[in-house]
Amino acid sequence: MPSLAPWLSVSDPVFPVHAFAGLQALSREQGWQFQLPADSGNGTARISYQQARGVLTMLQARYGRGLALWSGSRKALPQLSYLAEGLLAQATLGEALQFAMQFQRVAGAMTGLHAGLSGQHLIIRAEALFADPELEDFLALDHLTTALMTARQLGGAAVTAQRLELRCRGLSEQSALEQLFGCRIVFGADENRIVLPAGIATQEIRKNAPAPAAQAKQRCEMAIRELDGVQKPTLLQRISSEHWDAMTAAAAAESVHMSERAFHRALAREGVRFAVQTEQLRMQKARAALLAGESSELLAERLGYADERSFRRAFQRVHGLSPAQYRRLQAASAVN
After folding, report:
1. Paired residues of 8 in beta bridges
2. pLDDT at position 183, please?
3. Judging by DSSP bridges, how do beta strands 15-16 and 46-47 pair with one another?
C-alpha cells in the first residue's frame, strides 16, 4: 500500500521490477549474482525506491558509477512496457519524446526526464525524484543513456547528440561514453543533460505501431492508474513546483496540513532537510538567472536574501565562486 504522506514516498512500492532490465541483462552477460528486492506482496512485481536503492548502491560500490552507462545502453523498447507501444504510435521523434516525458513512470523511471527546445537545441535533462546524492548521478546517466538509445531505435542512426553534460567530475569510462554518445562529454556541469540538434524533433518515427496513438495513450493512462500512488509528485517535485524555497518551513508545513514538527519528521523520512533543499533550489534558479544576464542585486531581492552581500556569500559558499566569477567561467566554457 502507498504511504499516507502528501507526496510519493521512498517507501511506496510503485516501481515495476522491469526497470532493472538493463542490470539483469548485464548480470546474465557477466555472470554476476545479485538479488532483486522481493515482490511487495500486492500481487504485482513492484518495489519501492528504498528497496531498489539497496541493490543499486551495492552494484555501484562494486562496479563503479560507469555501470550506469552499460545498464542504460542495454534497455530497449521491449523493456519499456506500454510506453514502447505509445512511442511507436507517434508520428515524429518530438511527439514521442513528449509522450515519454508524460508516461515515463510506466517504464519505472526513478529519475525524472524533461525534454524541451532551447534555441537551436533539443535538451533532455535529468532531475532527481528523491533526495539521494549517492545515486542521483548514477541514475541520471542510466536514464539519459536509455533515452538516447530509445531515440535512436525510433529515429535511426541519424539521431546524434551534440554534447553530454554530467555533474560528476569524471568517469574512467570516458572513452566508452564518447563512443556510445558520439559527442563531446562535459564533466562538472551544473546538471545532467543531453544536448541534441533541434531539428531531430521533426524527424519521423521509422516504423509506426499498428495501435492508434489514442489507444496507446489510453493503455498508458490505465497502467498509471494501476500503479497506486504513482501520480503523486515526490517531495522534491513539490518543493520545486510549489516554490517552497520562497516559504518558511512553517508556511510549507501549513500548505500540506501538518504541524511544523510533524513536517520536519516527514521530511527526515525522505532524507530531506528543508533548509538544505530549499537553498539548493534557490541556487539552481540563481545559476540560470546569472547566465541570462540578471544582476546579483535583483537576484538577491527576488530570491529572498536580505541584501546582495548575503546572496553573494551564499553563492560563494555553495559554488566556491562569486556570482561574477561563475558567469565569466560559464561564458568562457560556452566559447570553447
Report:
1. 234
2. 94
3. antiparallel
More confident residue, 40 or 242: 242
Read off the amino acid at residue 28.
R
Distance CA 109, CA 215 (A): 22
Helix (H) or strand (E) holding 47: strand 46-47
Place of cell 496513438: 213
- Eight-class DSSP state of 80: G
Please report the beta strands in 162-234, taking only residues with DSSP state E, as ranges in sequence order. Answer: 163-166, 184-187, 192-197
d(CA 65, CA 104): 23
Whole-number Cα distances in Å, 328 to 184, 290, 309, 313: 21, 10, 19, 18
State the Rg of the chain over Cα: 21
171-206 residues labelled b (16+ CB within 10 A) or e (exposed): bebeeebeebbebebeeebeebbbbbeeebbebebe
**Closest by Cα among 109, 143, 136, 96 to 19:** 109
β-bridge partners, 127: 112
- Within 3-135, residue ranges assigned H as helices are 21-30, 49-63, 67-73, 82-88, 93-103
State how far the Cα of 243 lies from the Cα of 274, in Å rounded to an integer.
12
What are the cell numbers at 142?
542510466
| Residue 174 clears pLDDT 70, i.e. is over it | yes
Whether 112 contacts 51, CB under 8 Å = no
Q: Between the ranges 45-49, 231-235, 277-281, where is the mean pLDDT highest? A: 277-281
Query: Which residue type, as a one-letter code, is found at position 145?
Result: T
Please state the separation of Cα 104 from the chain's center in Å: 11
Element counts in the chain: helices (H) and strands (E): 15, 7
pTM of structure: 0.89
